[in-house]
């Protein structure tokens, strides 16, 4: 392939103001054009000579054209995300913070992310095979449309990380970003997923041949606002709203949640904002300067303020925490006490489905639970416990 | 560039609550009138809190997919969108006349045209009428028919009843239906006694709700006596006390709702080209080809 005439024309138009992009430099001065790539430099070129010189670095030209014309959106999260997808340097569009976010740390030594950003020639090689990235439970591949004679045009494929090794024929194939909404609605057990970053996205589907814009749209349907907040974090300007400001901002039935005791906020964060429940990494604290001990998780997406699910649950916990404690007396064997612990743990870890019917060694086994209920519950179906304080 | 955000309630428990929002957003996407169209929710994602930052456009039109002015439109949405300069007085509304206010979202520095809710827009009257057409599968329905617009009632929001009465009056003024009546779940006149309020044998009942859910699919059908148990479904029309009741659930699922969203944005200065015509044609063709699919859940026989 050769550098197309319209590419040349566009380059010439931009040359007056200077082109500097991904290692390609084109300038115009009184002595003609200057062309520079990391490997070569030409000066004093007239238009024809420039055209010839560009033939020897067409990868830089088609790369420039793709980002200039097809992607555009200088400074936008969309553009930064697409560059991240193909491991292009982010720093040219971003501030110095671009290299200091958790994402850059993650990429070091991370086999998937593959470390350092790639310069144009390496990227062009890699895009022929496809460059893979993971975004939560999504696996994204950036590749050339035409791998034999790449003209710079990229497309993107997207599937569940669990399907990365699957034959595409075994997957349900989609091309409309809006289909992601349906796919993200229910988990494998058919339960509704109100929290989009719950690590329960079902597998078995693929989006293929998406444009950059469609890719970002699809990702946003799976994980709303993650691209925007990732981009802010990269730039070092992620705005975090801590628990207390968020709680105090609430009105109506949620007005009460700022009364939730601080230690209960700890328990809440421990219950909800951990990797097993949510792919976001909790960046919010109790309030500025007052960090929660609960681990924020290692999730890929920053969580900048308590989500609506946590706010709704906090209302329940605020009510529950306003109750006074009492001392109860009830008869239990040591094993029965242990069994209560196992039951709570099994429910909390969503393990009950996995306990085999005949596994009576597990305290959360259904027959064990039914036996305990038969033995210890009274006629009203309540635990036979007596309050011993007044 | 201009963007449209449709702001709706959503639900943590019921995945269908957001269906109308998605449907109307998709219809508007098809028209290409906006560079970006985004759904945003109080209970789902993207949350109101984060939606504006996902947009590249500098001009953003926010249309609340709510029935009445009140707590959500006056307090929750503007607060969560960080419209610091917001004050309900900027709408200069009597409870049904909010149109728009232009503000800045503080976290992103974009211009936000914050519109009144869809439920109180004049175009909503047409949607209610279209709902009657859909329910009866008759584009000329009117003569010999009574129409009832049903709302929640005043226990939570005094403007809620205003919106119901507003549209009832407007439909009555058109002299299309023999009788028009505003009825409520929680205040007089109550929807329980729907047949007491009409002489017409045929009564179309249109609940002014955004999404189908507990009220429109359980409470109202049972209260009206369409069915003993909502799980058994009901007929359309269903015979009640010598009347025929034509009921198909929340008006918010009607296709023409996308037109109201567009009108709200256009009133606030959005350039929507001929998108309204496109949406109206689409809605009309859907109405011609049969009943609203979303009515299906309640119409089992
Ligand atoms: S508040 Fe916690 S559970 Fe909610 S999104 Fe953030 S990290 Fe996840």
TrEMBL record, chain A:
Coiled-coil annotated spans: 330-357
One Pfam short name: DUF7348
Positions of the DR2241 stabilising domain: 120-233
Keyword Transferase attributed: no
Domain DUF7348: 5-72
Renumbered residue ranges of the record's region Disordered: 93-117
Residues of the DR2241 4Fe-4S iron-sulfur cluster binding domain: 236-316
Superkingdom to which the source organism belongs: Archaea
Assigned keywords, A-Z: Coiled coil
InterPro entries according to UniProt: DR2241_Fer4, DR2241_middle, DUF7348
This protein's name: Uncharacterized protein
Automatic annotation (TrEMBL), chain B:
Molecular function GO labels: lyase activity; metal ion binding
Family matches, as CDD domains: CbiX_SirB_N
Protein name: Sirohydrochlorin cobaltochelatase
Keywords, alphabetical: Cobalamin biosynthesis, Cobalt, Lyase, Metal-binding
BP terms from Gene Ontology: cobalamin biosynthetic process
Pfam (any one): CbiX
Domain of life: Archaea
InterPro entries noted in UniProt: CbiX-like, Sirohydro_Cobaltochel/CbiX
């Amino acid at each position: 392939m050769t550098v197309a005439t319209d590419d040349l024309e566009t380059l010439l138009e931009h040359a007056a103001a200077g082109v500097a992009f991904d290692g390609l430099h084109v300038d115009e001065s009184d002595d003609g054009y200057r062309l520079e790539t990391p490997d070569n430099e030409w000066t004093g070129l007239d238009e024809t000579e420039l055209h010839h010189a560009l033939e020897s670095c067409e990868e830089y030209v088609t790369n420039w054209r793709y980002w200039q014309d097809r992607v555009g959106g200088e400074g936008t999260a969309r553009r930064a995300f697409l560059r991240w997808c193909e491991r292009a340097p982010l720093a040219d569009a971003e501030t110095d913070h671009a290299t200091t976010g958790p994402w850059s740390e993650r990429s070091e030594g991370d086999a998937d992310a593959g470390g350092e950003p790639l310069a144009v020639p390496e990227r062009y090689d890699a895009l022929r095979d496809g460059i893979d990235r993971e975004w939560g439970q999504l696996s994204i591949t950036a590749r050339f449309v035409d791998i034999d004679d790449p003209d710079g045009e990229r497309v993107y494929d997207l599937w569940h990380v669990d399907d990365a090794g699957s034959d595409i024929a075994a997957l349900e194939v989609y091309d409309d970003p809006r289909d992601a909404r349906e796919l993200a609605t229910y988990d494998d057990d058919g339960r509704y997923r109100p929290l989009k970053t719950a690590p329960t996205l079902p597998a078995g589907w693929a989006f293929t041949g998406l444009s950059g814009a469609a890719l970002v749209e699809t990702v946003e349907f799976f994980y709303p606002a993650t691209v925007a907040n990732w981009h802010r974090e990269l730039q070092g300007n992620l705005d975090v709203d801590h628990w207390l400001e968020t709680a105090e901002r609430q009105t109506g039935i949620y007005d009460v949640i700022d009364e939730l005791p601080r230690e209960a906020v700890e328990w809440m964060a421990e219950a909800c904002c951990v990797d097993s429940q949510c792919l976001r990494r909790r960046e919010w604290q109790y309030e500025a300067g007052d960090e929660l001990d609960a681990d924020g998780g290692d999730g890929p997406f920053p969580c900048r303020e308590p989500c609506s699910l946590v706010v709704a649950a906090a209302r329940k916990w605020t009510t529950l925490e306003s109750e006074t404690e009492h001392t109860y007396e009830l008869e239990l064997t040591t094993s029965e006490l242990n069994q209560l612990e196992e039951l709570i743990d099994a429910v909390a870890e969503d393990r009950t489905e996995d306990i085999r019917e005949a596994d009576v060694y597990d305290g959360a086994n259904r027959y064990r639970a039914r036996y305990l209920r038969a033995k210890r519950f009274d006629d009203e179906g309540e635990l036979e416990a007596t309050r011993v304080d007044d | 560039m201009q963007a449209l955000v449709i702001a709706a309630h959503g639900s943590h428990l019921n995945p269908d609550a957001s269906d109308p929002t998605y449907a109307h957003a998709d219809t508007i996407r098809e028209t290409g009138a906006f560079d970006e169209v985004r759904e945003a929710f109080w209970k789902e994602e993207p949350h109101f809190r984060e939606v504006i930052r996902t947009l590249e456009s500098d001009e953003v039109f926010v249309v609340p997919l709510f029935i009445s002015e009140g707590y959500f439109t006056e307090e929750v949405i503007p607060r969560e969108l960080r419209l610091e300069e917001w004050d309900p007085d900027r709408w200069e509304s009597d409870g049904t006349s909010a149109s728009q206010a232009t503000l800045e979202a503080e976290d992103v520095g974009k211009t936000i045209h914050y519109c009144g809710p869809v439920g109180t827009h004049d175009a909503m009257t047409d949607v209610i009428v279209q709902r009657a057409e859909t329910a009866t599968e008759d584009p000329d329905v009117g003569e010999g028919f009574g129409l009832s617009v049903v709302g929640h009632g005043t226990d939570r929001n005094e403007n809620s009843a205003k919106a119901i009465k507003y549209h009832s009056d407007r439909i009555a003024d058109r002299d299309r239906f023999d009788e028009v009546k505003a009825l409520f779940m929680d205040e007089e006149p109550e929807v329980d006694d729907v047949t007491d309020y009409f002489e017409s044998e045929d009564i179309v009942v249109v609940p002014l709700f955004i999404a189908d859910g507990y009220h429109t699919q359980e409470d109202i059908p049972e209260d009206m006596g369409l069915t003993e148990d909502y799980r058994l479904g009901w007929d359309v029309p269903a015979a009640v006390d010598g009347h025929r009741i034509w009921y198909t659930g929340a008006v918010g699922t009607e296709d023409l709702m996308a037109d109201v969203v567009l009108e709200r944005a256009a009133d606030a200065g959005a350039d929507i080209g001929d998108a309204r015509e496109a949406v109206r044609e689409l809605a009309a063709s859907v109405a011609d080809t049969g009943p609203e699919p979303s009515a299906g859940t309640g119409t089992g026989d």
